[in-house]
From TrEMBL:
SUPFAM superfamilies: Pili subunits (SSF54523). This is Prepilin-type N-terminal cleavage/methylation domain-containing protein. InterPro entries: N_methyl_site, Pilin-like. The keyword Transmembrane applies. The keyword Transmembrane helix applies. The chain crosses the membrane at residues 20-44. It holds the Pfam family N_methyl. Keywords: Membrane, Transmembrane, Transmembrane helix.
Length: 199
């Protein structure tokens, strides 16, 4: 039938609309879910690796800073004493403390904090200093954290005080979630004046 110059089909062929079947959609959803789960697992593994690397770098920084500070003070000390987990060093003031005069001695005491800084940071190695007298308990400031409970001491068997050889030991937290897991380190510090003057 022709109307206004156009052909009109009364029984036009209906075209089937193209699309996805339910099965195709379910397969696509399962494949997408597998990809998302794999990406999530990779993200979690990366996050855990980052936390372990962060803990390791913090531990290395704490260990490096603490050992360098203690070795420097032990090397130049005129008097060293280690008792009840406190290291006391005395040395002439060479501009280390502005409050001390040039002829006075600086007395520094190193010990662990009385309690943990936090559950994840552990105990702190603290230092107090004063001129010609032992520092008061309020004068102690934290140097580094990450120590286990009781994690600062000396190796009695290897320390030779008469010859100025000190073997100090650190126990650092290995796992933030489990403070009982520790990494133990020992390092040797030699007092130069005792080592040179000892026959």
């Amino acid at each position: 039938m022709k109307k206004n110059g156009y052909i009109c089909l009364r029984n036009a062929v209906t075209y089937r609309q193209a699309g996805f079947t339910l099965i195709e959609l379910m397969v696509a959803l399962v494949i997408g879910l597998i990809i998302i789960l794999g990406a999530g697992q990779l993200f979690l593994m990366g996050f855990q690796t980052f936390r372990q690397i962060e803990l390791l770098s913090n531990k290395q920084a704490a260990l490096t800073f603490a050992t360098e500070t203690l070795i420097r003070d032990i090397r130049r000390a005129s008097d060293i004493n280690f008792s009840s987990r406190e290291l006391t060093v005395q040395f002439p003031n060479n501009g280390d403390m502005a409050a001390c005069g040039p002829g006075e001695n600086v007395i520094r005491v190193y010990r662990l904090s009385n309690s943990a800084v936090s559950a994840t940071e552990g105990w702190a190695l603290t230092m107090g200093q004063d001129c010609d007298s032992t520092p008061t308990s309020g004068a102690f400031e934290p140097l580094v954290t990450g120590f286990a409970d009781g994690g600062f001491g000396r190796n009695e068997a290897e320390t030779d005080e008469d010859n100025g050889i000190w073997v100090l030991e650190f126990s650092l937290m290995n796992n933030r979630d489990n403070p009982e897991e520790t990494d133990d380190f020992s390092f040797l510090a030699v007092n130069r004046s005792q080592a040179v003057t000892t026959p």
